[in-house]
Amino acid sequence: MATPSYGRIARDGLWDNNGVIAMLLGMCPTMAMTTSATNGLGMGLATAVVMAASNFMVAASRNYITREVRIPVYILIVAANVTFVDLTMNAWMHELYKVLGLFIPLIVSNCLPLARLESFASKEPVMPALMDGIFMGLGFTLALTLIGAIREITGAGTLFADASLLLGPAFKFMEMRIMPADMGVLMMILPPGGFLVTGFVVVGKRLIDIRTGKGIQMSGAHSV
Amino acid sequence: MTFDVKAIPLVANFNQMMAQREGAMVHGIILGIFCLGFGIFLALTELATHNSIADRAMEDRQNSLGQVIPKTIHDNNPVLDTLTLKDDEGEDLLIYRARQNGQVTGVAYEVHGSGYAGRMKFMLGVDAEGKVLGVRALSHKETPGLGDKIETKKGDWILQFVGLSIGNPPLEKWKVKKDGGKFDQFTGATITPRGTINAIRSGLEFFAANRAQLLEVK
């Protein structure tokens, strides 16, 4: 497989081969962390950092990792990066850590970083691998923020509540109230809402792909 | 006739075995090097962040205690001025003490109540007279939108306890209105406020029972 162009990598990561809504990977954080758009955004960005760093490290050392031990090495690299993010965020971005801290260790259990290491970073040069990590991470962020936004609007009536805790006081303007709180459907914030909304978003993506005429060949993850 | 030594089954097996063993060794060494490298990387990260993390943890605890013990009534650091007593169930309970000029002006400790979805933990601050200085939910699993109004983020309900004590209102009035008490329940949730009020009441009873030890100046 020839190394894809950066444009292709970006399209794959953000839409065509999106980790959540096309490949259906990383469902655990998707369900757990999308009770609000802000939570989804934060979890997505933390995952993107880990994915970019892990992809970079694996691509850089791909010629030294033998096939037999590659899986333990990948897990080691992902776990080390997650621990690094966890410690540095706790020390130097403590406000953000208070919001996300509980969920950062969960990135280890997300199979999306591992899937990208195995199917992309272990075969491609360093720069494309880094780009793949960044765009797959951003695609993950996009999907989680979208699902989070839908659940938050329908469940609590707000959008990006507490965004200023995550991004800083400058982002206070993002916090919106779309409709009165008591109009929200509580179920959307509870676990069933996660399954429902994720399902509808996946269907929505397929419909858009079919409309634009590439639904058939793009359905499912392309071979790895 | 040419004679190939590898044609002898035993020799072939031996050669293959040696190759495999060397291979296994290489894999082990590669894995070992990666483990060592990342181990050192994480050890350095830990070293660099250790002090900051300890500082942040101290600030967090001071802030959360600051919500139940007003800063104006003490000149010490209650996080470091602790005392361990046995609670009603015989378990160790960590007490934080606030002092002004050496006199104990208030204490804070965790109290528990059972809510709609398991145990709820609160931090309760009590002054030397046994009046509530403040109470905050530390952790709970109550239903979002219904039971979580015990959080200050979601409502002012829990602030009404400030200044109250056993006797004001009288002990039998430390209940939700539905049970004939003084305090409002929330719309759609009675169990959560009931558990919260029980937790605060039992916390105040604990203070009354252990008053001498709590206020003792050492």
3D architecture notes:
The complex is a heterodimer of chains A (224) and B (218). Chain A has 224 residues and is an all-alpha fold. Helix content of chain A is 64%, strand content 2%. Chain A has a two-stranded antiparallel sheet with strand order 1-2. The mean pLDDT of chain B is 86. Chain B starts with 8 loop residues before the first helix and ends with a helix. Chain B has 218 residues and is of the alpha+beta class. In chain B, strands 1-2-3-4-5 form a five-stranded antiparallel beta sheet. At the A-B interface, helix 4 and helix 5 of A face helix 1 of B.
Fill in the keyword field for this structure:
heterodimer; A: 224 residues; 2 strands; globular; disordered C terminus; B: 218 residues; alpha+beta; 3 helices; 5 strands; elongated
Write the layout of secondary structure elements.
The complex is a heterodimer of chains A (224) and B (218).
Chain A: H1 6-16, H2 27-32, H3 37-60, H4 70-92, H5 94-100, H6 111-121, H7 126-156, E1 158-159, H8 163-167, E2 176-177, H9 191-211, H10 215-218
Antiparallel strand pairs in A: 1-2
Chain B: H1 9-68, E1 82-86, E2 92-100, E3 103-115, E4 118-127, E5 132-139, H2 191-209, H3 211-215
Antiparallel strand pairs in B: 1-2, 2-3, 3-4, 4-5
Extended strand count of chain A: 2
Count of DSSP-assigned helices of chain B: 3
Mean pLDDT of chain B: 86
Distance between the termini of chain B: 101 Å
Mean pLDDT of chain A: 87
Residues in helices of chain A, as a percent range: 55-70%
Question: How would you classify the helix and strand content of chain B by structural class?
Answer: alpha+beta
Strands in their spatial order, largest beta sheet of chain A: 1-2
The rough form of chain B would be described as elongated
Strand order of the largest sheet of chain B: 1-2-3-4-5
Unreliable segments of chain A (pLDDT under 50, ≥5 consecutive)? Answer: 218-224
- What's the helix-strand series of chain A? HHHHHHHEHEHH
Pair with the most extensive interface?
A-B, 28 and 23 residues
Order of helices and strands of chain B: HEEEEEHH
Q: What's the number of structural domains of chain B?
A: 2
Distance between the termini of chain A: 9 Å
